[in-house]
């Protein structure tokens, strides 16, 4: 079997590794010619994502990408008072792994190293324009006019997936979450924080972690939906100024991190993907953000990509034919990913309303978080290595 994966992001690279592990050949095509190590700032891989990486045979990959163990979250209000805490100290004992914060560009770089070491071909600068399907084959049409055939085509091309647009033209469009995320990292003279520090500031939500003299920070700036592509034209220094103004009346720790910052690494409008009626045909399937992008507030987008990368290869290996394998895969994943997308949206809405700064929010947040803690426990305790796609599948 030959699988053609469109998109060499976290989902695409991880899937190629997962397929290699079960003895299925794949190739990757990627629109961009290269990506820098500072691309996309940083993200957190949750314990379930770390378990998935181990199942992909890459337990040391996050370490190679200089990831830092983080555990737990402390929430504070605009006065700096701690209003809630998610304890993460027992995560390793409970889930077999702890969360890790990792620079996105370095993670992607290490994934590509692992892909190349496995002998998997990656073609950069190849942009998918359309996907066609016949009973015997799926064909990717590239923007340069070439046509590439394969037994299975996987769209791992992110939230604005062209594979999705081509195969499911009526699929819902990503939904804007009301904030623009920006952030970066900066050297700082503060002790390690270990737990992520989150502030419901007066006008915007702010978060940071300090690890070995570096503060990793982000701010969620409430804003109307920007036209696509316009944010890239805004000077990062101007963004930083805007963020400083928004947090000018927030606690000293927030201002200290922002005073040290020299630039924002970028600005990303936050979207999630409403539930798709279907994300597989007989020979085409979606994974990662192309299928189930979540609001980053869930802290699960990358981890879900890694889980997909374990389960889809097993479904292809174990099911009687390709069409059933792809259906088994989506049946296995749908319940879990939809629950997480819904949770991410709820948390994102809370953060977007940070500006309200209300006393009601301070009072209700501990209850909201207690409910969130049990959802988080469910997410973290998912052992992808124990999931059998045939048990949830159609055949
Ligand atoms: C600001 C922000 C913070 C986040 N924080 C976290 C976090 O803390 N924890 C977490 O788990 N997740 C987080 N996420 C989500 C996480 O980054 C995504 O879930 C994950 O990167 C999705 O990976 P992907 O490979 O599916 O998509 P992408 O990373 O978008 O990769 C898609 C790839 O496909 C390529 N491509 C696109 N179109 C085409 C085409 N037509 N032809 C060929 N190639 C194409 C792209 O160039 C890209 O390389 C965050 C997201 C954002 C925006």
From TrEMBL:
Transmembrane segments annotated in the record for this chain: none
Gene3D superfamilies per UniProt: FAD/NAD(P)-binding domain
Top-level taxon of origin: Bacteria
Cross-referenced Pfam families: FAD_binding_3
Positions of the FAD-binding domain: 2-319
Keywords, in A-Z order: Monooxygenase, Oxidoreductase
GO molecular function: FAD binding; monooxygenase activity
Protein name as annotated: 2-polyprenyl-6-methoxyphenol hydroxylase-like FAD-dependent oxidoreductase
